[in-house]
Amino acid sequence: MKSKIVAVIPARMASSRLPGKPLSKICGLTMIEHVRRRAELSEFLEQVIVATCDQEIYKEVKRHGGQVVMTSDRHERCTDRVAEAVKNFEADIVVNIQGDEPFLDPQHIDALVKPLLADNSLECSNLIAQIPSEFADNPNLVKVVFDKQDRALYFSREAIPSRKKSGNLPVQFFRQLGIIAFRTAFLDRFLTLNATPLEAIESCDMMRAVEHGIEVRTVAVKFDKFGVDTPEDLDSANLAMLTDPILKLYSS
């Protein structure tokens, strides 16, 4: 039986570094619309839903004909908002897409979902990409290390692995891209698990799964763009979007 795959884009206006970020304009279109429209280009997704607690975002998505649901304003983690949003939709697999990734590549969503379709025992997959070493200390980027079977071992906002201790060994750094796929049953179970110390320390939902011994399969793709966290990032995004090849597929 074919699995029904739904994407949820959690978005809210509150942001310490860039207030009102989802409605920030990039080449004339709000960031949330860039993300939503790009997600809709995925071959595997049957629905793309924005989940928000803010009327401004709700009205913006509705104005452009997109699907959007209102959620509680008390959620501390995006997975909680995603779980609330999908309660009203039938889905076998849910893809959580961060709303501050305006350069999202829809083909990467397809790559993320494929392991779940190929392995019924797998519950969660996480999209990652290699980054230059100069970005490893950026706390806005969640770094990840994984084993030889691509299973996540640890997530951190610090530089992992250690450059200081590497000696002559080559060091590669990977970050999670904020695009995670879950089986719906896993998402329900995840929310019943106790929050963990490392989840709080690293400010990363996926550490809860790792600490509870759940496999998080990493899926590496080539991606040299970054999310938008600061006004400087927004300026860079406006410049980069001018030559982005995917823009022409949805901007008309």
Structural write-up:
This protein has 252 residues and is an alpha/beta fold. The chain has one domain (5-225): Spore Coat Polysaccharide Biosynthesis Protein SpsA, Chain A (Alpha-Beta Complex), CATH 3.90.550.10. The protein is built from eight helices and eleven strands. The protein has helices at 31-39, 55-63, 78-86, 106-118, 184-190, 197-202, 206-211, 231-241, and strands at residues 5-11, 25-26, 29-30, 47-52, 67-70, 93-97, 124-131, 143-146, 152-156, 173-183, 217-220. The strands form two sheets. Strands 1, 4, 5, 6, 7, 8, 9, 10 and 11 form a nine-stranded mixed sheet that branches. It has a two-stranded antiparallel sheet with strand order 2-3. The longest helix has 13 residues, at 106-118.
CATH topology term = Spore Coat Polysaccharide Biosynthesis Protein SpsA, Chain A
Percent helix among the residues? 25-40%
Low-pLDDT segments, ≥5 res: none
Shape: globular
Which structural class do you get from the secondary structure elements?
alpha/beta
The CATH top-level class label: Alpha Beta
Distance between the termini: 36 Å
Mean pLDDT: 92
- This entry's quaternary arrangement is single chain
The radius of gyration computed from the alpha-carbon positions, rounded to a whole number of angstroms, is: 17 Å
Q: What's the number of extended β-strand segments?
A: 11
Number of domains: 1
Task: Report strand %.
Answer: 15-25%
Second CATH tier, the architecture: Alpha-Beta Complex
Biggest β-sheet: count, sense, barrel? Answer: 9 strands, mixed
